[in-house]
């Protein structure tokens, strides 16, 4: 079992293409099934700790994986029962069923007895590629068995989720599994909500697809990945405040939000924090404050080699805010646009961003950080895959889009996306988005080629360290420890 940080994500169609390629290169469906089932069996054997195991098999190849797992588990001395939804409908699954020498119980026509429920359940009913709801009786039976189990393991994906969107296909709520074993590669449903929560812990099993070619020009295969721990630059003896980067935060009607952003930037590693806000805003002495004017912005950043601008937290949405946004964009420095400023963007701004995206110049990059409501206001309502929606928004806007949420998706104008693992639900409190905007302002320089990914990771790591019941001010302070740990 392999942790999923940094691993590629494939859609159902891309996964089928990868399997077809492996078969063209000499593998067979049966050999892939044998590897998948054996991998599942080994993982379950270790986790079951001698407990009896119930394997639920569907009629397709996911069910075939289950039959192989049951056979290997029994060969290794584990007490195993098999429940089947019906007879296998593929040649490989039929062969796997034939190789299982034990009895097969049918469900839901002859429901498994409650008192016979196993403490360990392995669910291999449908998995990847399902596009329709489960039959209600089937869904109820699976739910009851999984909910009563001490350990529940989904093979590839829990049955009843859409592979590419992470949506639940059934009106009945799906049970939450202890573990999902992704076969060959991750799928969007492993990281997109609500399916990601249903999956529980997710681990990857290598089944011999040879996916080292992912992202190469010869294959129409995604290079999308799960965010991993970022390689932030270490400070050098010759570093000074300007070489570490200057982050300018332009505030407005609600100065507290801008104050959170600039403090977060400095605690995330920026060497200089400058806040344009109302006079008298309470701030640490380390933060420089100035009265706003376009001329003051120009003077402050003149001659500075590393300047990032953050605008939007607490900005307001009046004519003065529009003028500030236009001045910030006109500075042609890397810019993080968040909060109120997202509501002020127009097509004229996107035209500027698209032009910049054609220039190989990291000092002109643009980052948009909308939550779901801001995304809808900016790009319109969306359906289907959050990854696809973020990718389309990035291409249209010419900016890197950080589509925030429990399943944050980062999409770049070149079409590449990264997805964060589910973060702490305690981040659902006022001001945490302002903190993320400030972190991103700092990572423009400490992780220039993965600034958004690094910012999202640091944000989540600070929340993880705090545990729970924190406020945004606590999150900003915790960033010092996160950055120092690098």
TrEMBL record:
Keywords: ATP-binding, Isomerase, Lyase, Metal-binding, Multifunctional enzyme, NAD, NADP, Nucleotide-binding, Potassium. It catalyses: (6S)-NADHX + ADP = AMP + phosphate + NADH + H(+); (6R)-NADHX = (6S)-NADHX; (6R)-NADPHX = (6S)-NADPHX; (6S)-NADPHX + ADP = AMP + phosphate + NADPH + H(+). AMP binds at residues 404-408, 433. Its EC number is 4.2.1.136, 5.1.99.6. Its cofactor is Mg(2+); K(+). Residues 15-215 form the YjeF N-terminal domain. CDD domains: YXKO-related. It comes from the Bacteria. Binds 1 potassium ion per subunit. Pfam families: Carb_kinase, YjeF_N. Residues 40-91 form the Rhodanese domain. K(+) binds at residues 62, 159. Residues 224-486 form the YjeF C-terminal domain. The keyword Nucleotidyltransferase does not apply. (6S)-NADPHX binds at residues 61-65, 127-133, 156, 257, 314, 371, 434. InterPro entries: Carbohydrate_kinase_pred_CS, CARKD, Nnr, Rhodanese-like_dom, Ribokinase-like, YjeF_N_dom, YjeF_N_dom_sf. Belongs to the NnrE/AIBP family. Bifunctional enzyme that catalyzes the epimerization of the S- and R-forms of NAD(P)HX and the dehydration of the S-form of NAD(P)HX at the expense of ADP, which is converted to AMP. This allows the repair of both epimers of NAD(P)HX, a damaged form of NAD(P)H that is a result of enzymatic or heat-dependent hydration. Catalyzes the dehydration of the S-form of NAD(P)HX at the expense of ADP, which is converted to AMP. Together with NAD(P)HX epimerase, which catalyzes the epimerization of the S- and R-forms, the enzyme allows the repair of both epimers of NAD(P)HX, a damaged form of NAD(P)H that is a result of enzymatic or heat-dependent hydration. Homotetramer. This is Bifunctional NAD(P)H-hydrate repair enzyme.
